[in-house]
Amino acid sequence: MKNDIKKYILKNNGIAVYALIIIIMLIIIAIAGIIIVLRIVSSNDVESKMAEIDELTKKACNTTNFSVILKNNGEYSGKVIYKDGIFMQEIYNAEYNSIFWSDTRSIEENNVIYSDENRFYVKNTLNITWNPEKFTILNVLKTYEYSGEKEYDGIECYLVSTPLDEVEKYGYKTTAYIDKNTGFVIRIETENNGLTNVSEREFSVGTVTDHDVAYPDLTGYTDRTVY
After folding, report:
1. Please, are residues 189 and 196 in contact by the beta-carbon 8 Å criterion?
2. In whole angstroms, how far apart are CA 127 and each of 17, 40, 95, 99, 111?
3. Where are the beta strands (DSSP E) in 104-208?
4. What is the pLDDT, as a whole number, of residue 37?
5. CB-based contact 63:205 (threshold 8 Å)
6. Are 122 and 225 in contact (CB under 8 A)?
7. How far, in Å, CA of 187 to CA of 178, rounded?
8. Is 143 in contact with 166 (CB distance < 8 Å)?
9. Is residue 110 within 8 Å of residue 123, measured between CB atoms?
10. What pLDDT band is residue 186 in, cutting at 50, 70 and 90?
11. Residue 52: what pLDDT?
């Protein structure tokens, strides 16, 4: 009788153990499935964000009217205004502050640097092709990866940064804040050897007039052009 009871208990315990093992395996399979699904969803989400960033960048590159105040580590470092292919940029150096005016539609004939302080100008000193792309992610990082979203100075932004393999290889990391509305990069953080440099850009879109970018009146200025 006792042997029969023992066999009965062992038999039922064995069934319980098998059932428990099956349940555990099902739970593991379910968790693995959830992880796979989450990874797929996350991957699709990142791809969607990157596609949105690409579209925003194209939008910024096609912007024809904007001004931007530039700051470096909180200090004012210049200003650029742009309208329909014409731009003016403040330039700073040790000798004098000046302004570079250029009609990028005909840069060979329409470049001039002039100084209001020193009252001189120099024509056709630079031969460059300038465009709004200068202020997009295309001019900040050659390769980048999506790293989240964040509000900066009241502006909703996408964050992109240097890929991890490049950080490990070169030892520095750049993070750029891309305005979700305009597509322009409004903040750049560069970390290198424990130091962080911050560049900020304050954009105003659609506010530049023809008068703002008109060719400067250089009456009374000294021509220092070298012919």
Report:
1. yes
2. 81, 48, 22, 15, 8
3. 111-115, 120-123, 145-152, 155-161, 172-179, 185-192, 195-205
4. 47
5. yes
6. yes
7. 8
8. yes
9. no
10. very high
11. 95
Residue 101 tokens read as 């005016």
pLDDT digits (tens, 9 = 90+) for 6-63: 554 445 555 666 666 777 776 776 665 556 544 544 445 889 999 999 999 999 999 9
Q: For position 33, what pLDDT does the model report?
A: 57
By C-alpha distance, which of 62, 73, 104 is closest to 198? Answer: 73
Q: Distance (Å, rounded) from C-alpha 179 to C-alpha 158?
A: 7
Helix (H) or strand (E) holding 88: strand 86-92
Question: What's the pLDDT at 94?
Answer: 63
The answer to whether residues 185 and 152 touch, using CB atoms and an 8 Å cutoff, is: no
- Specify whether the CB–CB gap between 199 and 70 falls below 8 A: yes
In one-letter notation, the amino acid at residue 223 is: D
| Whole-structure pTM value | 0.77
Q: Residue count of the chain, please give it.
A: 227
Structure tokens at 146: 């999506």
Look-up: residue for tokens 């009871």? Answer: 5
Cα Rg, the chain, nearest whole Å: 30
Phi and psi, residue 141, nearest 5°:
-135, 135
Average pLDDT over residues 62-87: 93
